[in-house]
Protein: TTC12 protein
Organism: Serilophus lunatus
Amino acid sequence: RPPAMLHDEDTEADFQRFLRRVDDVTNLLQGLRCTDCAEKEKAVAEAEEKLQDEETKAGVTRTVLTPRGPAEAVNADGFLATLEKDAKERAERRKRNQRLAAALKEEGNAAFRRGDFSQAIQSYTEGLQRLRDQQELYTNRAQAYLKIQEYEKAIGDCEWALKCNGKCIKAYFLMGKAHLALRHYTESRQCYEKILQIDPQKERLFKDCVNEVNLEEKRVKDEERALKEVQSGNAAALAIKELLQRLATPGQEILYYTGGIRLLAELVKDCTEQTLFRTNNGFSILGDNEAVGRAFCAERKTPAEVELCVSLLLLWQAVCAGNEENQRLLLTQPDVKAQLPELLSSRILEIQKETLALISLYSESENGRKLLLKHQDLSRWLQILMAFVKSTDAMAGSAMNILSDLIGEGRFKTQCQVSTGVLPLFTQLLASARLVNQAALACAIGIMGSLCAEPGTRSQLGQSRECWQGCLQLLDEGLGGSTPRYQECVFAVLGLMMNLLLESNGIIQHFAVAISGRCLALLSHQNGRIVTRAIGVLSRVLAASPSAVEEAVKGGVVKKMVKFLKAGGQLTAKYGIKTLSICTKSNRQAQEDLVKADKRFAVLLELLESEDELTVGNAAFCLSQCLGVPGAATALLNSNVVLLLLRCAGGDAARSSVQENAAIALGKLCVAEPRHLHQLRKLNGLAILSSSMKYVQSS
């Protein structure tokens, strides 16, 4: 017979007495060790009284201290030794019980994993008999009770767990689930609110749990309202019920079922009718009616089967619009789950169109996207939806909107690793940019750029020769003038290239000269967004190849960067100064070009006062590289360059690399033109530099 549950008031009082006795023994031991004689004697008397009053527990052996007679004085030290022995025995007994309870917990966990919830409850209960203050045993048993729908018992165990640990998140979580199952919606929300109070980092869990409560509460209310409509004789409600009964009748022609499905789609206008469809087993049409199921799943459909399939898709759109419970139920239907990708890739335009419309209902809401991620294998979806870019009608936009909605979900990025089928399709789309839906293509390129946030996807694309060739071909066709839509494709492909250039490999080195050449040509484009991104690509690709740097310098990149830096713009400045720092690092011609283009280093001095530290660090680096050019340091004599560099080197900059670049520039400045030393000493710069460099080296 399973051990009795401990949930009555007497048991709770007993548990509280147990916890108080632990505190009492601790206090007594502290008193017995006290150096004050009066306190010690008082503690001895209290201990003697408690030990005499203690009742012997069944099956528990206690150390009994025999009371002394009047003629036999109690020896305090001996009494303390006996009491400590008793405490030691209790501690050892507790350790044994802890080991036994832990073993029973593992037995329970094993039973839980194999689905034997009754055995799991038995093991957890036996563990609690050994150790009543074990929080994990209570929460584990509560979880098992939830599995067998013993919700009240689960709540009781969660309450016991919270007596052991008032901040047990698992206890509040399971209690919230149990209250939800009992339709105690307010209590369920309160449990989840407690989780957020205990740990504000659990906000995502809190939102998901509360959303589940809200959905369940809405579902129950909708079903109650729908039942009232039927009971009151509502015509639409009765018609829906009758039509569903007709659709379940076997042996009819396909057109008969198609007509009934169309009528249903027209009748379902609001939430009540959607609920009536659900509560009258509307989602079992495919399973209950063999003819309908066979027509829906047919690989090669007849015209009648096509019409039935389209009618079903329209019906599901009607019953799922804004109804998350219906959306969930639809995706749990095995045939629907299996057929959605097939319908999407069908060559029948009307089926594709209505399938896209149905999926859009899911992708437009957060819960809908979660349902898709949970019930669909989306690894094929990227390729299927990307193929719609070839369509010239609205389906291309619908497909890209679905992908744009899904791309914000981290799980989608993880699931949709770029497959072997997607890459050839994508490069083909890039190469035929003039022939496809360009608005959809721009969106598709942006989606691929977002997928490159996953290192595996980025590495795969970055090593694809065909991908780089496709990007360059698209840029080539945009150089001679293009429509606004094509410009969006150019802008998107530059963004993709920037992401791919976070990689470093031989393919990128091979294409570096070609990439930098296209970007230099785009610097004269009339679209400022394209120009800024072209500079961004230059700031990344030039580092991959000395040959690319040499060709870019010959093409006048330094003069062009100075021109854009003078025009201003924080993002342009960030990319432009990075490009200059790469060019001047190893190219003497670039250093000389910068000295000529930036008279008295007006641009670099302005960048040294930027709020962006990376910009400041690169400006200091460029300056230090140019100080070897004759006359460069002298041109700075009447400027505030020493003060600006000293501020950065002396600790104003948070990054040690920025401090180091500024310090190196100061050193080179004073070597190239010793007259700068006077200003440095005047500002106590040598001491500041010495101190800051020690910090930089240590960090």
